[in-house]
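Ligand: beta-D-galactopyranose. Inputs:
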Amino acid sequence: MNWIVFLLLITLSVSVPAEAETMKVITSDEPPYSYQREGIQDGYATALVQTTLKEAGWKADIEEYPFPRMQCPSVWPRNIMIYPLLRHSGNEDDFLWIGKITDRQVTLFRRREDTRVFPEDYGSTESMRIGAIRDTPAAEQLRKDGYKSLELVGTDIQNIRKLMLRRIDFLACDELIFAHAIEEFNHEVSASESIQMQDFEQVMTLPVNDDGYYIAMTQGSDPETVKSFQESFRKMITQGTIVEVAHWWTNTVEEAMLALYRDALRERGYIWNDYTVTGGAGTGMELVFASREEAFNYPHAMQSYAGPSIRDASLRFNLLSLNRMAEQEQWSKVLYPFVNNAIQVDGKYLAVPVNIQRVNWLWLNPRIFNAVGIEIPETPEAFRNAVIALNAAGYNALVMGDEDWQISTFFENLLLALEGESFYTSCFIRMDTDSLCSERMARTLREFRFLMQYVDRKSDDPSWTEAAGAIAEGHAAMYVMGDWVKNTFHKRGISYGENGYLCIAFPGTGEVFLNNTDVFIFPEHRERSRESQEALASVIMNPEVQEQFNRLKGSIPARMDMNPDSFDNVTKASMEALATSTVLPSFTYRQASPEEFRKGFLRILSDYIRSEESVEKTIEKIRTLSESITGEYR
Ligand code: GAL
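Predicted complex:
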């Protein structure tokens, strides 16, 4: 090799150094922004980092460190990317800032049962023990504000443990991070120790003196590289490539169906990013979402329900109108008419529908019925007798997770079975006070209390999947739940039939299809996110995706132009019921009445069962609730 060629090669290899291809990236475990899922770094902020680097022609080599170490500027050499980093006046010059991930909201949580009053002026109480994470600005701030009894640890999980053991009174945490810390905590403990978002209450939001979470480079990094990252970050944000989706579909079956959305969206050039809070019927999501709303920190898309929920949301924040798309894709022709109506508010399409799900199903373990030698019940009386007989034979006649929405699912089925369609409609759609407070309601409540004695409430792990598992494993004979249950059976290799599971319409409701339609709504808030939101809406409506998604979910597509042959027998039976019976909106799944009424009613039902309140007192509470609902909902 001659010298000139040799020098040329050296020069080339110096100007394009090997490490230029892979950027070393430091992060810490801050779900939902950055966390490991099956050994791979995931999360909203991680997706932002990966896309930024990719746009600029780099790859990411991401490593996780504890938060105090990650955010310490002197630890890291130059040319290193760090996220999610809190930017504040104290570290402004320590890093080169690439772009902002999100604002932050620090909230003080206490255990709900711990009802001591916490003063408005949070700085004035010194005796309260507050847990925070060492070296975080929140901790710094609390210290500056005069907190002497601050208890510092390394992780939120340690704090949750201390709160449960009453070693601290309050925990200071970013609300989104707290929700995920609860999930992680539950993975580490036994089912009987598991906790839920509802076990905690937000006492107050702390003033924060930082500008939120950022992606940054270490000081001294190559200015050209930094500039190219800043540019690609800006481009990514203005193009709206990332679609953050808030939902509660987190079990493995649900993950698999969401993969269809993810993949279809990726094909269109967008990245789906999860914002999940576990909890059936969106109960956990509802609690956590309030603080995002306060901070105007909306995701691009949110799981919700057809009907009044959409109106409720549209009164709280602006929703993207999908009218243009609905017209182009002829939604009014391809959707079932009742779905087409239930996704519009005052003539505007404000949601995209996913499915049609029957809620009045009774799931059964036939082997238990055979062992006891009784028939599968077809009337409410036969149901009552079967419950008594199964119990007398030593079986759990009914199973249910100890959650208000599951209790209410059973109640709405029972009310429909005992008192019929028009009474259901008067109570839950018209919210007619006379019906709600009638002897018929009292009678239903009494029967409900009677049957609830025989329910194994699974309070250790109240999730619906656990209750479904009890049917599959023969630990209980019957479960009243929507059609999403069957996929958890199929996942366990248990199929429909005498040796697997059976299902029938809840006795006495065979003429009705009690419906629960899942939808996604799109808060209108960020500039230029419209394209990405519309891309997701169109993915959800896409005929192929609708068919495959609903096959996995166990539901009926919201579109009518699907081939019924590709669905399993239970869905086919459900389709048949849809075609031949009266479709009523499910109250529990927010399809029938406004949220204020539903929430109040569920609480009253829960007090009735859990605190054994009298029927008379319960009816009085229902009256007060019903009379408080006024305005446009009447
Ligand atoms: C409902 C939803 C169903 C199912 C269920 C259990 O809110 O409509 O699709 O996911 O929760 O989580």
